[in-house]
Specification:
heterodimer, A: about 110 residues, mainly beta, six-stranded mixed beta sheet, five-stranded antiparallel beta sheet, B: about 120 residues, four-stranded antiparallel beta sheet, globular
Chain lengths: ~110, ~120
Amino acid sequence: DQQVKQNSPSLSVQEGRISILNCDYTNSMFDYFLWYKKYPAEGPTFLISISSIKDKNEDGRFTVFLNKSAKHLSLHIVPSQPGDSAVYFCAASASEDMRFGAGTRLTVKP
Amino acid sequence: DTGVSQNPRHKITKRGQNVTFRCDPISEHNRLYWYRQTLGQGPEFLTYFQNEAQLEKSRLLSDRFSAERPKGSFSTLEIQRTEQGDSAMYLCASSLEGPISPPLHFGNGTRLTVT
């Protein structure tokens, strides 16, 4: 059962523009959400997170938005840079149980 | 902080052989997790340790899989009688407490190919 879904396998944006990556979840018990970034031949690295008691968390160029009623979260990257090109995984957690989405490959073109 | 180290980086084996992977977590981290990632999918939880105690195993972890963390430091994941369906990237991660705060630190993984 896929409790965390990233429906866009890939996204391509121009350098300097906004990248918006989306994630949907089905389990209402999830109370913490994270985004990880993965470069080829490396493990995922933590990017940004948000608790279910918030609807927005910002860290520099990265902002995560959470819409609990829609069970939807999104990651905004502004402005996008070529170095942001990677696979982005959404993850959701309920206590010890953390589930990952299938990932979205972001390509930022110079 | 030298990061999470996994060895080997790549392993090619024939179906039916046994393989063992090693993970060295960040030294002060109590929690150690194993995940499996197949092509086009996100990491899937396999098992985790709190110090030397294995506290949870996913139903994905068949009885051909066994994990240990003797002395609460490094961990090994063994797969017996490998099958082609075991081909995947095996990721190890560690953290101070749970999986979210602070977040998991992942190693670079061991890619297993079963021929």
